[in-house]
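Lay summary. Proteins are chains of building blocks that fold into shapes, and those shapes determine what they do. In this project we predict the shape from the chain. Here is one chain we studied, written as its sequence of building blocks.
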Amino acid sequence: MSFQHIEGWLTEDEGLRLESHASQCRELIVEIGSYRGRSSLYIAKGIEGSTFNPIFYSIDPHAGIGVNGHNFDADDLAACYHNFAAHPEFGQHIRKLVMRSDQAAPLCENRSIDMLFVDGDHSYEGVTDDLCRYLPRMKQGGCVILHDWYLDSVRTATYQFDCLVYGDQVDNMKVCGVNHGQS
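And here is the predicted shape, written in a compact code that computers can read:
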């Protein structure tokens, strides 16, 4: 099932990669930035098809953050909830957190996150803050997926973190592993 009918910038190949990675997660998946829910539903579809049932936090304040020339608002949040309700078999897996990523971080224990999808504030400072806040909460060998890799701000912010092991790229999405080194 494709979710390309939902407004957003995620390609189908990117969505299928999110679905695939989500299907392998055991404990916790965190998505920063959901817009109208396209990426959330691909991730939830991966959970639905899995033998595991990880917790999935979809974090987005849906207020005032301008990305790609769009300012997000309550209409986007309403559309997100509508899209989740239209696909209840997948929407049931999503714990929607309407807050900023810094407010949601305390909900995640250190070394508990299997997969982190970063598609929120695309500024250098925003990506840096999200990675500073969430990388310590990643499991050893976890998966960090960064959307809009073509943006200098996303790439430049990411390069400062030695624990990221760069993997493949699908369209505008970069997949990285996490290596915390010796514990």
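What the prediction tells us: The first strand starts at residue 28 and ends at 32.
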